[in-house]
Structures are given as structure tokens and as C-alpha cells.
Amino acid sequence: GQAGLDGTKYNECMQSARYAGRIQASLEEGMKLGVSSTPSFLIGGRLYLGAMPSDSIKALVQALLAAPAR
Asked: Is 25 exposed, middle or buried (0-12, 13-18, 19+ CB in 10 A)?
């Protein structure tokens, strides 16, 4: 409520299961990739589990961008 969430609309959405299929598909995709926790990051084809500082993510991405294409 403090964040401005409409509790009634939220409850209606959850009860309708409108997005259940999409959520299940995402869960299954994550499991296939080896995701076992949140947050998880897939960067350059490698899976990183757990929290990472934004500077670490930035460094990984920059290293991938600088690397010669395979």
C-alpha cells in the first residue's frame, strides 16, 4: 500500500492466474540453464548466481565487448 499498489487489483490478478503460464515457462527456462537462486545473471553465456555489484557486471560486459569475436 505504501508503494501505491492497489491491493484489490493485485489480488484479482493473482487469483485469475492470468500470467501463470508465462511464469511457469520462465521458471522452466531458468531451471534448464541452471538457475537455482535469485538474483542470477547470464552474461556472455556464463551463469553467475547471487548478488553482484553493478561495477562487477559492468566490468564483465565491457570485457566481453572488448574481446575479439569468436
From this structure: exposed
